[in-house]
Structure formats: structure tokens, C-alpha cells
Amino acid sequence: QVDLVESGGGLVQPGGSLRLSCAASGHTKPYYAIGWFRQAPEKEREGVASIGATDGRTHYADSVKGRFTIIRDDLENTVYLQMNHLKPEDTGLYYCGTAPSGPLPSGPYVHFDGWVFASWGQGIQVTVSS
Asked: How much is the mean pLDDT over the chain?
């Protein structure tokens, strides 16, 4: 089991920047990929960015390409999401999630970049508003 703890959310004006952090603890790298996801009110959870656990390959949702960057720090066992040029439609509850390499937990499940993400942090709010 991997525990994921998000931090760094908050309120930012349109055009501003935020950096989210996801600290992973527990068994080292029991997953195929780790990523960031978001959920707006009354909408389904969607993938934002992910990075492979072994090859470091990144994948982004079209809506954030060129604005967001996912970074993995293996020494700190932390994954970051640098968010620039934020827009009001980026508002939502942001989750850190992993695609487990073992049996899947109970979910929810999000399919992103060919992986099934199923283990989640508690989520952190990002609000983009003037």
C-alpha cells in the first residue's frame, strides 16, 4: 500500500502559478505510473498529467499541455505538478494517484495513458478566480 499526501493547493488569480506536491510513502514504487487528477463539482475525475515509474515517460491532458509540468523526485519520493498560466476552468479538487502494479483496490478508477489509476491521496483544492 502506498500512502499519498498532497500539498500546495490554494486560491490563485487567473494567469498565476501554483506547484502541487505529492509525497509517497510505504513500499517503494509498487506502481506502474503516478499522476495528478482533478475533479470539478458534479463532474467525473479526470487525468491531468502522469509519469511512468520506470521510464519517466510523461503524458498530459490536452487542456494542460504547455502550461503544466509533472516532475518526479526519486530522492524525495515526491511528485510535483507545476501549474502555470492557470485558468478558471482549472479549478477543482486535485488528487495524486497511482496505477498499482498489484491487485487493484476498490477505486474509484480512472483510465489515463493506458493505465488504470486506483490509489488516491485525500485531494487538495485549487481555485482559480479573480
From this structure: 93
